[in-house]
Design brief:
This protein has a single domain (5-198), classed as Hypothetical protein af1432, CATH 1.10.3210.10. It is 40% helix and 2% strand. It has helices at 26-34, 49-59, 65-70, 75-78, 83-86, 92-106, 117-133, 158-172, and strands spanning 5-6, 13-14. Strands 1-2 form a two-stranded antiparallel ribbon. Strand 1 (5-6) and strand 2 (13-14) form a beta hairpin. Helix 1 packs antiparallel against helix 8, helix 2 (49-59) packs across helix 7 (117-133) and helix 2 (49-59) runs parallel beside helix 8 (158-172). The longest helix has 17 residues, at 117-133.
Length: 201
């Protein structure tokens, strides 16, 4: 059974059941996420996972910016499965966790970085904002809250989403920084975030 995909633009094999850091390229992640639509395509217009990640990165505190940008990076290799379906898809969540661990190692992030409370909070609130902006019925949305400014949702074309994702990555990541991967930070600090700061209407 084939257990790898060919990523683009690297054209490298990624063994999604047992991948290694050497198989992971940020250019592949950006390209794939820019071409994957959020909400399994069930929205009024195309809106990419790459744009979603870009916004999360900008809405969290600076020390969590790279975490926010890459919090859905595994979807570049296994797709964006809506939350309600994941528990019915056998080993999907285990495969997802394994890939995210490898991504954390690759980019010098904390293991399980995507589950940090600030990332989860902003991700949930942004998802609600996206749902409102993109024509979803939010009457039964599980976590109603004050949305972010609906104007941040640009529905960028894949080429623009990819470009902005990569530009954001290179603005906050420095592969010469051995300790954390963050520019001008020898020690990565975890800062408390102000929930009120995210309550933009």
């Amino acid at each position: 059974m084939v257990s790898w995909i060919q990523a683009y633009p690297s054209n490298k094999k990624v063994h999604f059941l047992n991948c290694t850091p050497s198989e992971i390229y940020i250019e592949d992640i950006a390209h794939h996420l820019a071409n994957i639509c959020r909400f399994n395509g069930g929205i009024s217009q195309f809106y990419s996972v790459a744009e979603h990640c870009f916004h999360v990165s900008n809405l969290v505190s600076p020390y969590r910016a790279l975490d926010g940008l890459l919090h859905d990076a595994s979807e570049a290799y296994i797709g964006d499965v809506v939350r309600q379906q994941k528990k019915h898809f056998g080993n999907y969540k285990a495969i997802e966790k394994n890939i995210m661990t490898i991504i954390a190692v690759k980019f010098k992030l904390d293991l399980n970085f995507q589950a940090h409370p600030e990332i989860k909070l902003v991700d949930e609130k942004l998802a609600y904002t996206e749902a409102m902006r993109l024509g979803k019925d939010t009457d039964e949305w599980p976590t109603k809250q004050t949305p972010f400014d609906l104007g941040i949702i640009g529905c960028w074309k894949p080429e623009l989403a990819k470009s902005r994702f990569l530009n954001r990555f290179w603005s906050i990541y420095d592969d010469s920084e051995e300790i954390t991967g963050f520019k001008n930070n020898a020690i990565r600090k975890d800062t408390k975030f102000n929930i009120c700061a995210h309550n933009r209407s």
